[in-house]
Amino acid sequence: MIQVKELKYTYPRKKQQTLRGLDFEIGAGEVFGFLGPSGAGKSTIQNILVGKLQNYEGAVHVFGQEMKKAGVDYYERIGVSFEFPNFYGRFTALENLNHFRSLYRNRDAEPMALLESVGMSQAAHTKVEQFSKGMKMRLNYCRAVLNDPEILFLDEPTSGLDPVNTAMLKRLILQRKEAGTTVLITTHNMQAAEELCDRVAFIVDGEIKRIDTPHNLKLRGGERKVRVEYEGDQGRSSEDFALDGIGDDARFLELLRYRQIITMHTLEASMDQIFIDVTGRSLV
Amino acid sequence: MRMWRMFLFDIRFQWKHGFYLIYSLICIVYFGILYFVHEDYVEKSLILLTFSDPSALGLLFAGGIILLERGQGVMGSLFATPVRIREYVLAKCLSLSCLSVLAAYAIHLPIGGWPVSPVHFTIGVALTSSFFTLIGIWTAVQCRSINSFILLTQLYVLPFVLPLAGYLDWMHSPFMALLPTHGTLILLDGAIRVVGWQETIYAILSLVLWIGGFGWLTNRAVLGTVRKLDGGKSHE
Fold it and tell me: Among A47, A91, A100, whose Cβ lies nearest the Cβ of B229?
């Protein structure tokens, strides 16, 4: 679906390259995440893939076509949700969606049904200027899927959403994936990336530092150990045990048999920890 | 047809942002002023007023719309849809032309009555409005603030006001005949006299050619600043 080779990009009037030779491929129906600190080049990649930036070096093929040659019909096949959910403030949610839908050839989507799917049917006739950030973000998602896109670009889709709406949006994204949509997510939200993405790429200073499934990254970044927290004689204690040969570890078996176990976790790395390790920066 | 749907949306946008209300108030003010003009000067005053305001309202209003759309941040999302720049620009030209024609008649009818040639008058207002709308969009997409927009538009529009000097017999120069607004004045004159077909063709052709030129410039400007974020220019 998307093939990128040796992608380099320098913004006009800037000397330093923002992207410095990226290679990756994204398959049809895959949910792919771009992770990394602010200014790493994530949005630049998205802007190249949605055709906003064309003065790049290297090769970028989407639907088998070089992006430099993509015309406006390309937008019939993709949906874009930008980080900042901007709308016509004096128009209602429904009026905004109706207008944006009217710009596509495929106008099968029912804006009211989309609003309902994000729990906003009550706000359909409210002016967008009265919406909270969370409501605008949900409306932003609705706008991005109006044309039932083959590729969906989501920039920080969970930004400003409460946990309930975050969970709802994740469910909707996974439904899209099941329906065969390719989804590209740019995010700082490691939990969302882990739950949604088949693969993620960590972008740091315009380069891909790591690219793999969240599961593999966590295994590789962690220790092959299990940490057991138990009720000891002096109160709660914890001990770590190597996973290799754990079935023969007498101390481990003793704890299981004779102590009250509070928690027991393998010590694979968390996505947050991988982010910090890879980028050298902490999550905000 | 997408252009038609955008045109209708633009009309609603202008309505919701009070453009029609503002212009109704302006028309009332003009009506009041013209009421006190001596009847020997009413006809010329009407032509001059129609030239300088309803016809040219596209200039400021188009700029206002662009700056509003940019301020609301909708440009990015709008140009991530299949909308073509020419559709976007044309919808703005047509919607503002409608407002111009309505305003021109609102000022003209109560004072001057029905134009001698409504066709010339209407075409003159509509084409001139489109021309100034294009200048407004062209300038606005390159400006970041309302102040720089107002400053630049005054500068760009200055040469196009020169034919007024000829119309008022203050000064004549063959150079003025090259300007589209010379054609505007001929067509607006259709409100008070019968305009010959040769003059009509010349006036329409002049305006259409200038509209074509500025349409091309506007298309490039929107492409380079809104649709493509790197301006289609080399960054090396």
Answer: A47
